[in-house]
Amino acid sequence: MAVIDVLPSDGKVIDEGPVGCSVDVCCDDFRHLDIELPPEILRLKDAGYLTRAVAACDRLLEQNPEPSLAACVRAERYRMLETPLHFSVSRDLAIAMIREEWPEFTEEQFDDLINRKRIDWRFIDGELFVLDNFLDSLRVYPREVPGLRPDSTDGIALRNQMLKEMESQNGLSGTSDVFPDHVPALCRMVPLLAILPNGLPS
């Protein structure tokens, strides 16, 4: 049975090689994220200089490092390449998009939503970017963004169900555990892996 997959970054069909693999990274590589990047690459990544960090990964891979380190570098490199595809809305554009619905919205309110973790963001090459669907996420908190259009009826029902489930689990926060046996399934969650800030959740 042939397995066909599509890489989200370029839309090309992959019909060769092991399941969950592409030219640059394969599913098994994500098992080695606990190895961590070399300090010089990690500093670039944490500072948001992803273009430079990816270039440093390429230079390291050309040196044929130890297999587990190479796997970690390939996985982290892929995540860094994917991050800008999801965090694609600049700060100025995000504020402008909110003001289309809520003209009185201020930059201070935007910063407050960032500080209260109502908007997910990343620094990418020195500039703050937010998720491309950040407006939909904000509608989950109508009391905090009263100037935005209400969520659709379906969206409200889904939100209420989600909040009810979260409350039943001792509050509106939680953690999840990911074990090695689950890693192959994570290859179907590449967008999520790409945007996690510091590796797999714990």
Mean pLDDT equals 80
Distance between the termini: 35 Å
Number of domains: 2
> What integer value in Å does the Rg equal?
19 Å
Describe the sheet with the most strands.
3 strands, antiparallel
> What is the tally of helical segments?
9
User: What's the helical proportion of residues?
Assistant: 40-55%
Number of strands: 5
Strand content: 5-15%
Helix-strand string: EEHHHEHHEEHHHH
Unreliable residue stretches: 1-6, 16-20, 174-202
Task: Trace the largest sheet across and list its strands.
Answer: 3-5-4
| Category from helices, strands and their pairing | mainly alpha
Question: How would the global form be characterised?
Answer: elongated
Describe the structure.
With about 200 residues, the protein is mainly alpha-helical. The chain has 2 domains: about 5-85 and about 185-195, no CATH class; about 90-150, no CATH class. The chain has helices spanning about 40-45, 50-60, 65-85, 90-100, 105-115, 135-140, 155-170, 185, 190-195, and strands at about 5, 15, 90, 120-125, 125-130. A hairpin with a 6-residue loop joins strand 1 (about 5) and strand 2. Helix 2 (about 50-60) packs antiparallel against helix 3. Residues about 1-5, about 15-20 and about 175-200 have low confidence and may be disordered.
